[in-house]
Amino acid sequence: MDQQVARLRMLAPDGLVVYDIQDEPGRSGQARPFPFLPTIDPEVYAHDALAELAIPKIVYRCVGAQPREVFSSWIDSIRAADRRLGVFVGAPHGRSPLPGLPLAEAYALARAAPNLVLGGIAIAERHVAKEDEHERILAKQDAGCRFFITQSVYDAASTKSLLSDYALSLHACGRSPAPVVLTFSPCGSVRTLEFMKWLGISFPRWLENELRHSADTLERSIDLCESVFADVQDYAREKHLPIGINVESVSIRKAEVEASVELFQRLSSRLAP
Amino acid sequence: MDQQVARLRMLAPDGLVVYDIQDEPGRSGQARPFPFLPTIDPEVYAHDALAELAIPKIVYRCVGAQPREVFSSWIDSIRAADRRLGVFVGAPHGRSPLPGLPLAEAYALARAAPNLVLGGIAIAERHVAKEDEHERILAKQDAGCRFFITQSVYDAASTKSLLSDYALSLHACGRSPAPVVLTFSPCGSVRTLEFMKWLGISFPRWLENELRHSADTLERSIDLCESVFADVQDYAREKHLPIGINVESVSIRKAEVEASVELFQRLSSRLAP
Which residues of chain A neighbour B206 with C-beta distances below 8 Å? Predict the structure, then answer.
């Protein structure tokens, strides 16, 4: 924990995203490439374990897995608290067997806490299949979302396609864009690659080949992440869309965690004006 | 014709590709966006109409539409001729109702004429769906193909994916690459875009949006072609794959034909070492 605090102090990000990791047995028919390790509650981790870290925290709240009352009383506790709180809310994968609160109702409940800065999830891979993710983003903005976070970006074209349709829709209805925070994750092995694919992250075939056949998959992956980001960033600038970055390691492997530190530094230096 | 000869003299390409245009009523279920205009035989056009043009010509020969005897006697006439002749051979779209010579038999017949420099077609869009286009390329090399020509490239990722799998296969079996000639075509209108899609050319959604919503579609298209080429060229260099360019206008519209001249000049200046 001390090491984690020291690392985050050194990196000094604008904010820290704390996920709530789900087992998601309902996802795909494939075995989970990495075993699921139950973790502590993300809010406890963010606000208690990392209490001494004075960086704004954005806590992920998964609503699909809990009844309405749990979410509702959580909103009450937030409203009672005397601070702004960043939260992004999503539901687990569609085929989840868990009964839970529909996303739209969670957003409606969240509006009762004006000190809550609500965010949503935007998934470019879903846009490739359905071509309506920009409409979902706009609907989530209507429902109160003020920023979006993507899953890990390895496919520049699908991310640009989502941003393109989003920019066109904003223009058509004269609205302002919400910031889209692009997530990037190092990939140090074929197993990690398989895990990311299991999570629903898409890789252009040539890029997957690069990772599979590189002598140093980890280093190659952060080079590739950087060039994917540069490509998407150029495009977003052209379209006057505000974007940000979020760097995470999808595994607990030391080398990948350390590579995520390097990747954060490389990408944030590109964000500087 | 004089204008065409003057234009080609000015451009001074290494070679001229002369297509044999098919109506292809068997292609897709959609109406053909541009009407089919019967043209003169590509060989007559290349070697008679453009006889005064001392540029090597590569004539497209479509084998799906003609019986074995026609192709076979054509090969005899080539063998008898006292010159090297570039030809690339393909079959029309799979659902064509025309009976004709299978591609493999055409290649076998072509081997009887050693003065014939045989080329084949490589389609990245087919690779996205089936992931075996690199194997088809290698099989065509075995059958005597010494170069490949793509259809128009607007999708850098799928082209890089094909080149990636091709490079990996070559490496695995210790073989040398055949040059891949990448085709590029300006797109000056939504109608031309629809025609290219009808021809089977794929456009990433963001790029299609750029073309559809640009104030100057034609100029935007050649800028985009140039950046697609730069991307693919960087990748091909990294993989030590020899590539070339072929620029064509898919329509007979004056503005698009003129834009193809500009595009040729821009791309060929990037090819210079």
Answer: 157, 160-161, 163-164, 235
Nearest-by-Cβ selection for B164 from A131, A165, A209: A209
- The helix/strand/coil state of B218 is helix
Q: Closest approach of chain A CAs to the CA of B208, in angstroms? A: 9
Could B209 and A165 be called an inter-chain contact, meaning their C-beta atoms sit closer than 8 Å?
yes
Residue B228 half-sphere exposure toward CB, CA atoms < 13 A: 27
Taking CA atoms, what residue in A is nearest to B131?
A: A205
Cβ-based contacts under 8 A for chains A and B: 47
How would you class B99 by CB atoms within 10 Å of its CB: exposed for 0-12, middle for 13-18, buried for 19 or more? exposed
What is the pairing mode between strands A85-90 and A147-152?
A: unpaired
Number of H helices, E strands in chain A: 11, 7
Calculate how close chain A gets to B193, using CA atoms only, in Å: 17
DSSP result, B76-143:
HHHHHSSS-EEEEEE---TT-------HHHHHHHHTT-TTEEEEEEE-HHHHHHHS-HHHHHHHHHHT
C-alpha dist (Å) from residue A187 to B9, B37, B102, B264: 51, 52, 45, 39
Q: Judging by beta carbons within 10 Å of its beta carbon (0-12, 13-18, 19+), is residue A51 exposed, middle or buried?
A: exposed
Contact list, B165 vs chain A (CB under 8 Å): 205, 209
Which residues of chain A neighbour B127 with C-beta distances below 8 Å? 205
User: How many residues make up chain B in this entry?
Assistant: 273
Q: Name the nearest CA neighbour of B121 among B165, B70, B167, B63.
A: B63
pTM: 0.92
Measured between CB atoms, which of A164, A205, A213 is closest to B205?
Answer: A164
CA gap A270, A258 in Å, rounded: 19
Provide the 10 A C-beta neighbour count for residue A248: 18
Best mutation site among A133, A153, A205 for testing chain B: the one with the most B CBs within 10 Å? A205
pLDDT tens per residue, chain B (273 residues)? 788 899 999 999 999 999 887 777 667 667 888 877 777 888 888 888 888 898 999 988 888 777 888 889 988 988 888 777 788 777 766 555 556 788 888 888 998 888 899 999 999 999 999 999 999 999 999 999 999 999 999 999 999 999 999 999 999 999 999 999 999 999 999 999 999 999 999 999 999 999 999 999 999 999 999 999 999 999 999 999 999 999 999 998 999 999 999 999 999 999 976
Distance between alpha carbon B258 and the CA centroid of its chain, in Å?
19
Q: What is the ipTM of this complex?
A: 0.90
Are B206 and A163 in contact (CB < 8 Å)?
Answer: yes
Q: CA nearest A213 in B: which residue?
A: B168
